[in-house]
Every structure is written in structure tokens, then in C-alpha cells.
């Protein structure tokens, strides 16, 4: 009996394109419930190294490793709500009361839409989120619906994150199994390179956030700037936005100091704002020369011009989220293009290992080694 003939190349392409279109239509219809699962992917991605460490090095079963992380997070959340919430709430209230006035001053300094971000819209969203309801949402029924939706999304997030952490290794092996066998080693190495680039970048940015938020909060508190805690946390968050973030954080803090009208030292407001500006400048320089090279290291090998273009395009296309992820996306695209360049020219694809924070390895294609290890361009590309 003759075996049935295989599908033609055109038929295979049509099937793949059809499946992709069906998947896109399906995702468009369920986009309202996608965000808990997307955030679960992010949380699992960040927490998986801790789970792996507890499971492999700590010889703790994977289930109990995840339970330990959940319990630790719950304890920290309860402790924070018990001891930190009153002070944080007071600081944030003072800051929000001055926010409309600060908005006008900030727009005068950096413009209404720096890198595609609408400052007026962002401030309105911030005020709406902080207040918890609008004039049209005061009814008990609406508040009850919002509370139910929030609880449901939180439940979905926690459950999805739990199963992603438990099944992470199995999902990775399943991904490798579907790759073409003849190209599997190269594609796995490429995927590992992109994975470690993202992991190193995200870890480094979180460390930078913690350092800058702590340092600026302490500095602003010593100088007596109102709302030092929310300003410090916001400065740490903006530090995660390449190029535009530090400038915006400094401009915001200087604006707060200037428009406050008084200061505990009896200086003129211009001098007071100048001291705050100098403090941010010193912190920024110390970060560039002492923190960034050790924290981010070689996670992102991009020319500063490419970083600038990527951040601008990310802000225009994806808004605030686009600004955050523009640089690692650009680094991932570069890695893929280097791989395709080698394949199109029938050149062997080789990977040179580069050590990262925490002992990981980023395998950089050898065709990409065109700049010295400590060149200024590389340092600027990772800041």
C-alpha cells in the first residue's frame, strides 16, 4: 500500500499562517484577561533563578521552594502594611496634593510629550489610581465589582505564577523538543543567549532601582525636600528608563524643591534647587562609573546611538512599557540578526561565553565581537 504523499511547502506555509491568524484573533478576544497571565510570566521569569537555587543547591523540593517564596512574600507584605503603610500613605498624600502644580512646572522643563509619553495623561492616570475611584464610580455596586475583578485577577496571577514556577523546567524541555533536530543545538544556544541577556538586564535594573531609590530617598530627606519617599521611589523607577529616565527624575525633584517656597536651611529657592540638582548629578556619575559596570556588566552590547533610537521607538510604540523593555528587545533582535547573518552566508555559528552577574553565561556570537571589553561605547550602551 502506497504511503500518502506529504504536504507541499505552500500548503505548510498556509497552515502555519492560518494558525497564527487564528491565535491572534483568539488573543484579541480574550485580551481582557491576558494581563494577569502576562504578569505571571514576568514574575515566574524573575523568580525562577531563586527557585532553581533552592531546588538544586539547597536540595529543597521544587514545590516547597515555591511555597517558601510565597510565604516570604506574604510575610513581607504583611510587615510592610503594618509598619510602613502609615508613613508611606502620608508622604504620598502630600506628594499627590502638589502633583498638579508640579505637572505644569515639569512640562515647562521637558515638554508635554517627551519620547511619546503624554505627561498630562500619565499624571491623570496616577491621580486616578491613587484616589481609587472617579466621580462616576462612587456607588457601592461599582466598587464591589471593581473589588471582585481585582481579587479575581490577583488569584489568576498567583495561581499562574505558581504553576509556571513548578513546571518551568518541563516547559523548557518541551520547547527544545519541538525544535528541528538538525538545528537544535544552535537554536538552543541562541535562545539561552537571549534568555540570559534579559535575565541579566532585568536583575541589573532591579538592583539599580533599589540603590537609587534608597540613595535619593535618604538624600532628599536630609535636604528636607517634601515627599522625599515617593520622589525617591519614583527616581529609582525612572532610573530603569535609559537616557530619559534619570533626566526626568532629576528635573522632577528639582522642580519640587524650587516650587515648594521654603526650605529648612534659609537658602534662596534657586540655590536650594541647585543643591538638589548637584546631588542627582553626583549620584548619576557615581552610578555610571561604579555601579553600572558591575551590576549590568555586559548584559547589553549596544552602541549608545542604537540605545537612543530603541528607547525613542519603544516610547512611541509602547508608551511607558515600551521604554522599559526597548533595550533588551533591541539586544535580542541584534542577537537574532547576527545568527541569521551567519546562516545566510553559510558561516559556522560559534558562541563566545561572557560571564554575567551571579555566575551566568551570555554566549555572544563571535561575529559580534567588534568592540573592546571596556570601551566607552559598551559602558554607555548598558547605562
Q: What are the key terms here?
A:
about 375 residues, two-stranded antiparallel ribbon, 12 helices, globular, disordered C terminus
Please provide a written account of the structure.
This protein is mainly α. Helices cover 74% and strands 3% of the residues. It is built from twelve helices and two strands. It has helices at 9-29, 34-57, 62-83, 85-110, 119-131, 140-177, 184-223, 228-238, 244-259, 269-295, 304-344, 376-381, and strands at residues 351-355, 361-365. A two-stranded antiparallel sheet has the order 1-2. Residues 132-138 and 354-383 have low confidence and may be disordered.
Present the secondary structure layout.
Elements: H1 9-29, H2 34-57, H3 62-83, H4 85-110, H5 119-131, H6 140-177, H7 184-223, H8 228-238, H9 244-259, H10 269-295, H11 304-344, E1 351-355, E2 361-365, H12 376-381
Antiparallel strand pairs: 1-2
Helix pairs in contact: 2-3, 2-6, 4-5, 4-8, 4-9, 7-8, 7-10, 7-11, 8-9, 9-10
Short summary:
The protein is mostly helical. It contains 12 helices and 2 strands.
Cα end-to-end separation:
66 Å
Put simply, the count of helices is 12
Major beta sheet, specifics?
Answer: 2 strands, antiparallel
Mean pLDDT, all residues: 75
SSE ordering: HHHHHHHHHHHEEH
Number of strands: 2
Amino acid at each position: 500500500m502506497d504511503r500518502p504523499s506529504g504536504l507541499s511547502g505552500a500548503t505548510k506555509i498556509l497552515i502555519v499562517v492560518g494558525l497564527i491568524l487564528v491565535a491572534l484573533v483568539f488573543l484579541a478576544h480574550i485580551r481582557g484577561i491576558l494581563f494577569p497571565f502576562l504578569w505571571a510570566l514576568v514574575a515566574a521569569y524573575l523568580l525562577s533563578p531563586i527557585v532553581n537555587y533552592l531546588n538544586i543547591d539547597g536540595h529543597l523540593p521544587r514545590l516547597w521552594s515555591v511555597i517558601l517564596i510565597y510565604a516570604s512574600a506574604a510575610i513581607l507584605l504583611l510587615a510592610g502594611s503594618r509598619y510602613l503603610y502609615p508613613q508611606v500613605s502620608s508622604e504620598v498624600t502630600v506628594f499627590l496634593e502638589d502633583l498638579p502644580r508640579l505637572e505644569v512646572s515639569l512640562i515647562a522643563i521637558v515638554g508635554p510629550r517627551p519620547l511619546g509619553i503624554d505627561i498630562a495623561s500619565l499624571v491623570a492616570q496616577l491621580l486616578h489610581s491613587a484616589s481609587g475611584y472617579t466621580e462616576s464610580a462612587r456607588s457601592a455596586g461599582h466598587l464591589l465589582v471593581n473589588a471582585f475583578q481585582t481579587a479575581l485577577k490577583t488569584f489568576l496571577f498567583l495561581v499562574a505564577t505558581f504553576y509556571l514556577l513548578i513546571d518551568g523546567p518541563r516547559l523548557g524541555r518541551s520547547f527544545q523538543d519541538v525544535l528541528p533536530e538538525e538545528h537544535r543545538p544552535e537554536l538552543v544556544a541562541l535562545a539561552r543567549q537571549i534568555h540570559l541577556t534579559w535575565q541579566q538586564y532585568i536583575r541589573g535594573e532591579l538592583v539599580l532601582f533599589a540603590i537609587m531609590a534608597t540613595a535619593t530617598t535618604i538624600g532628599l530627606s536630609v535636604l528636607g525636600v517634601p515627599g522625599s519617599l515617593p520622589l525617591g521611589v519614583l527616581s529609582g523607577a525612572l532610573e530603569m528608563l535609559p537616557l530619559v529616565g534619570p533626566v526626568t527624575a532629576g528635573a522632577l525633584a528639582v522642580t519640587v524643591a524650587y516650587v515648594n517656597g521654603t526650605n529648612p536651611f534659609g537658602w534662596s529657592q534657586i540655590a536650594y534647587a541647585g543643591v538638589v540638582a548637584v546631588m542627582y548629578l553626583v549620584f548619576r556619575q557615581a552610578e555610571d562609573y561604579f555601579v553600572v559596570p558591575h551590576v549590568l556588566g555586559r548584559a547589553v552590547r549596544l552602541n549608545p546611538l542604537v540605545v537612543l533610537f530603541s528607547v525613542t521607538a519603544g516610547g512611541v510604540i509602547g508608551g511607558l512599557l515600551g521604554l522599559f523593555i526597548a533595550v533588551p528587545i533591541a539586544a535580542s533582535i541584534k542577537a537574532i540578526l547576527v545568527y541569521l547573518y551567519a546562516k545566510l552566508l553559510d558561516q559556522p555559528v560559534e558562541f563566545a561565553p561572557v560571564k554575567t552577574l551571579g555566575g551566568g553565561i551570555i554566549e555572544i556570537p563571535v561575529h559580534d565581537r567588534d568592540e573592546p571589553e571596556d570601551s566607552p561605547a559598551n559602558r554607555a550602551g548598558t547605562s
